[in-house]
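quick q for whoever's on today - can somebody do inverse folding on this one?? i tried earlier but teh output was garbage lol. tokens:
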């Protein structure tokens, strides 16, 4: 019994999916997106190769934060200089940069290192319903609650 190793054409057949985030909890949405980006939904999945597909997320501002995350969750960023750390609450982040909430949730669920960065580059998140990937003909993907 030999181990299956995917061929080059398996890696090159990448699909594009379009996900509408309206009314979907951020955590549930990001787990599905992380599985698609890493390729875990495919029968040819290999843990050390980037087998995933591209994902376009629209209406990021309409995604839902459950529980008290809107008031309690904090997003932090720094320039590594002393005293440069900035904190912003999730409800304020949803008003100013709603795409970053989904991006941060998905990035945290992907592997760390060069492989995870390659998977993360295939994620495109947009605040409104418009996106610039019509030429790729993304297939609509529905996420069950």
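ok took a stab at it. sequence:
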């Amino acid at each position: 019994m030999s181990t299956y190793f995917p061929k080059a054409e398996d890696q090159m057949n990448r699909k594009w999916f379009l996900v509408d985030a309206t009314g979907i909890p951020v955590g549930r949405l990001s787990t599905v997106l992380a599985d698609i980006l890493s390729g875990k939904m495919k029968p040819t999945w290999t843990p050390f190769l980037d087998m995933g597909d591209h994902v376009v997320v629209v209406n990021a501002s309409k995604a839902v934060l459950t529980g008290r995350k809107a008031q309690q969750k904090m997003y932090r960023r720094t320039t590594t200089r002393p005293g440069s750390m900035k904190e912003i609450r999730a409800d304020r982040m949803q008003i100013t940069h709603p795409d970053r909430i989904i991006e941060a949730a998905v990035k945290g669920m992907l592997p760390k290192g060069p492989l995870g960065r390659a998977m993360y580059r295939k994620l495109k998140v947009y605040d409104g319903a418009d996106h610039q990937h019509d030429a790729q003909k993304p297939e609509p993907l529905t996420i069950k609650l």
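fwiw Helices lie at 8-12, 26-38, 69-72, 90-96, 98-109, 114-120. also The first helix runs from residue 8 to 12. so keep that in mind when u check it
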